[in-house]
Specification:
With 296 residues, the protein is an alpha+beta fold. Helices cover 26% and strands 19% of the residues. The protein contains seven helices and ten strands.
Length: 296
């Protein structure tokens, strides 16, 4: 079943082990992933913008690629996380039934249940929801553990007006690389035929799938200093004085951030250049000026 999964030692059944009241620093479990699946198989009266009149086969999970991403090493240019891909051809049922995705789905489910944060490209609209669809396919799988999510497509849209927010175009824009020439569209049908041809197609699918995760990591690394992230990695890691974006303690004060009701000390990380601020407002005696009125 592939390499041994990393175990989140804090994730046990009692409440304290879910992070409540814990002070010991720990590594955030950040799961960067991408899935590949088939579409619907059915009958229609046309080939373009048409309706399917009879569904013969629902989507099948073909593969998923993933890595456990070390946030604390995100600023290290030499850091190259190991990307793993699992395909239908890796399961024990492939020879008997190349369309049986049961074991692959359960493996993805087990890995996702270890994560604190999911990262993917267009993952909120596709990978996360399609994964849930596959999980719901089996009555013995309960809803997975709730996690925080970072979608690099949403990040790109919120940060800048790029010519395109597709993974391939963003990677090209940043000079990171490109998708493989052989794509999902060239491989999905052969992948579910089984035999030698099916395994050959699955090997190429794994290369394509892993490259998508590699590009997602590269795009995330370029976007993350600019993004006002809702994920506080320092809180997950149980670190009090650390950049919430990269977990480093190398930062400097840079003015204050005024709001309608208070003023907050502002900092910039010297490692990833992310901006963040104190949770507690500066008090009047420490230099804040409190206007007599605020806007209604």
């Amino acid at each position: 079943m592939g390499s041994e999964p990393r175990v989140n030692k804090n994730m046990t059944q009692n409440e304290a082990d879910y992070g409540i009241g814990l002070l010991e620093p720990r590594e955030p479990m950040v799961f960067v992933y991408d899935i590949e699946c088939t579409g619907l198989l059915g009958y229609s009266y046309g080939m373009w913008e048409t309706n399917i009149h009879k569904v013969m086969e629902y989507p099948i999970l073909l593969s998923f690629a993933y890595t456990w991403y070390d946030i604390s090493r995100a600023n290290d240019p030499t850091y190259k996380p190991k990307i793993i891909c699992r395909t239908l051809a890796d399961t024990d049922t492939y020879e008997v039934n190349p369309k049986d995705d049961t074991l692959l789905i359960k493996e993805l489910y087990a890995l996702r249940n270890q994560a604190d944060v999911l990262i993917g490209h267009n993952s909120k609209q596709f990978d996360d929801k399609v994964s849930n669809m596959f999980f719901m396919k089996y009555n013995n799988l309960n809803p997975p553990v709730p996690v925080q999510q970072l979608d690099t497509k949403i990040m790109a849209k919120q940060i800048g007006r790029f010519p395109s927010n597709s993974l391939n175009q963003l990677a090209d824009f940043f000079g990171i690389g490109h998708k493989t020439e052989t794509t999902h569209a060239d491989l999905w049908f052969d992948s579910i035929t089984g035999g030698k041809d099916g395994r050959k197609a699955m090997k190429k699918m794994a290369v394509y799938n892993k490259q998508d995760v590699n590009l997602t990591i590269g795009v995330y690394q370029r976007l993350k200093p600019w993004y006002r992230t809702p994920v506080n990695f320092a809180r997950i890691a149980n670190l009090e004085l650390a950049c919430p974006n990269c977990l480093k303690s190398n930062y400097h004060q840079e003015g204050t951030r005024p709001t309608k009701t208070g003023r907050y000390q502002r900092y910039q990380c010297n490692e990833c250049f992310h901006w963040f601020s104190d949770r507690s407002a500066v008090r009047e005696k420490d230099g804040d000026i409190k206007p007599a009125f605020v806007s209604a």
